[in-house]
Amino acid sequence: MKRFWGLLFLLACSPEYGISDNNDIADPIIDTAVEQQTTPPVKMDVPTPPEETYAAIHIEPYDYDFGEVDVNCEYEYDVVITSIGTEPLIIDSLDYAHTPELELVGNYKYPIYLKPGDTLVLTFKYHEVDLIADTGRMFIYSNALGKREQMITHQGIGVATGNKVDVFKQEEINKADILFVIDNSCSMIDEQAGMADNAENFIDDLMTAGVDFEISVVTTDDPTPVSDPITPDSRDPAKEFSDAVSRGNSGSATEMGQEMAKQALDPIRGMVQPREDAALSVVVVSDEDDFSPLTELEYYDFFLSIKEEELFFFHSVVSLGFGCGLGMGDRYIDQSNLTGGMYLDICSPWGDNLNTIANLNYIIATQYPLTEVAVPGSVEVFLDGVALKKGWYYDIGSNSVILEDRNLVVGDEMFQVMYDYLGDCPL
Q: For residue 304, is it within any domain?
C-alpha cells in the first residue's frame, strides 16, 4: 500500500502528468464543443403541401314517382345536377332506358363541363296513353370522385278518364225478302197446318211493323215458287201465305233445303230474285236434317255472293233433339250460325215461331263501335239489362265489341256496352 501511494505522488508532481492552472493553453476538444453550442442553427424553408382538388356531383332527386296520372295528359319534372367539387365536373354521357311514354327533353353534346357550383337541369316528360306502368332509368357517367356512375329513376301509371255506357239499337229493315223452304215429306202435315193456322198473325206482325216484304215459298225438293211473291199489296196476304205453306206430304224423303234455296236464288236460273235494296232471309222448315250435296261453307259462299253479309240471314225451324222430329237439323243450324241467323224448335208452338220470324226485321249488327277508347278488361255487355258472359269479345284494333253469335240478339233489344275509357286529358 505504501508503494501505491508513493507512485501516485510521483505522477502528480510530474510536469508531464501533473494538474496545471495555466489558462493560456487551449484545449482543442473543449473549445470545439463550446463553439458548436453557441453557433445559431441554420433555418430550413419547407414548402406547404398543396390543397387536394377533386370533382364531385350532387343529384336531386334520385328517384321520382309521377304516381297515378290521367291518360292522355302530359307531365314534367326536373332533375338538378350540381358540381360541388373543387375542380370541374365532367359528364361523359347520359344513358337513358325508358318506356315510350317517357322522354328526356332536349339533346346533349358530350362531354358536359360544369364548373364548381354550376348546375345542369334535366327535364323529363311523361305522356301516358294507357293503363300500363311506365319506368325510366338513367345512368350518369362522370369524373366525380368515387361516384363515376350515378343512377336516377322515375315511374308512373295511367288511370282511366271515366266510365261510360254506350247503347245500341238494331237497325230496322224497311224492305225484307223472305224465302220459305218448306219440307213437304210425309211427316210434315202437322207442322204445315200449324203454320197455316197462324198465317194471319204472322202477316199482321209484318204489316204492323211497316215492313215492305216479299214472301216466296218453295219446297225441299223443288226450287220453283208455289205462287207469285206475297206482298203487302196482295189481295189477301194472310190467305195466300196460308195456302203457300200447305204443301202436303207427297214430297221427297231426301230433303235438300239448302240446295233448293240455292237453286231458287240463282241469279241466272233461279225464279226468286231478291230486290237489291232489301234484306234477304231464308227460312227452312223441316223435321229432319239436310241432305244437300254441297258443304255448309259452299252454300254460305253462294249466299254471300248474292247479298251482303249484314243483309243476309239463314233461319232454321228444325228439330233441336227434344223429342220431336225425325232427326236434328244439324246442317241447317250450322248454316244459321254461319250467317248469324236464328234456329227455332219445330216442336214449339207455331204462333211463337212465326212471331219470332216476323220480328226478325232487324239488321242484327255484329260490330258495335264504341264512342270512347275502352280500357281492355273493363268491357261488359248487357242485353236489356242482363249481362252477357259469352258470345262476344272486345277488339282493340277497331275499338269495338264484336258479336260472335248473332242469335244472342233477336230484334229490338237494348244492347249496352259498359266500359272504362281513355278520353281526352281532363286537365
A: yes
